[in-house]
Design goal:
47% of the residues lie in helices and 17% in strands. The chain contains 13 helices and twelve strands. Strand 4, helix 3 and strand 5 form a beta-alpha-beta unit. The chain is globular and about 55 Å long.
Amino acid sequence: MSSNQKLGLQTNVGVGADALAARFALIREAEDLGYTSLWIAEVSGPDAFVSLAALALNTRKAELATGVIPIQIRTPGAMAMGFLTINELSGGRAIAGLGVSSPVIVERWHGASYRKPVTAMRECVTIMRQLFTEGRSKFQGEVYKSDFKLSMRITAPHPPKIYLAGLNAPMLRLAGEVADGVLMNYSPPDAIAPMVQHIHEGAKAAGRDPSAVDVGIYIRMCITEDEDKAVDSFRRELASYAFVDSYNKMFARYGFGAEFEEVRRLWKQGKRDEAPRAITEASCRKIAVFGKAAAGRDFVARFRAAGVTHPVVFPIGPSATAARDYPNTMSALAGA
């Protein structure tokens, strides 16, 4: 990895005192190994802002990113305050990774509205940019409105960056148009070039330099001797996305449509243990790596060759062996 190349690490932080101490030791090691960004996902806990605040106080140089938070469950103003706080605590290292999530999470879990997700994202970014750069937002849109002035004292050298989670063409184009970067997910290297093309189209349409948009992707891998167990664990993870429309549309592009249809059929029949087995090992290995360090490093190189500028290593595997597999994967991919 050259000195100007970016390499991220996904690191969801446990909340118990013992878990935190162990994870912070690993995170400090990750910085020493050359990881340039640390990413925290938020689904059903822990809270991403609290976790990033802890990281801000326990790291020195890596960028600190949400990967990602759903925009609908907090107001744009509340998110702006959160990211500005992280940015202050870290001396300007915050990345606001934003996504539109899914109707299940937004509406069923949180009772919020999922309407017009692409419009909502555009408006949310507009409001957050105003607050990041001017400390003041006056905005009236189709989904959001804001008349809000911050009273924070800002000392960080620059505002937080904004990255959008993008799976399909409309959001990828929007990222090119309005964001500093994009975070893609669950995609094989041979699918990246057309996705990058959508990002570049959005940038050009907005009169921006396409190369100014950082192209990130979560790259799932487990460097382990127990490949079969890691593949099985990943099957179960993938199966959980069979009921998310945006992911189904993307997976169908990769030739997984029939497998995911079978997952849904078995699930609806109550065969929930059997359903993940409809996803083949070949499909799992198309979008994740299991086994040797060399395979993981080659996978990252293929993404870089396809146009990814910010690969993010996402260690996966069975929870029973995570204490072994996570540090092994992190160490094996350092500098990739």
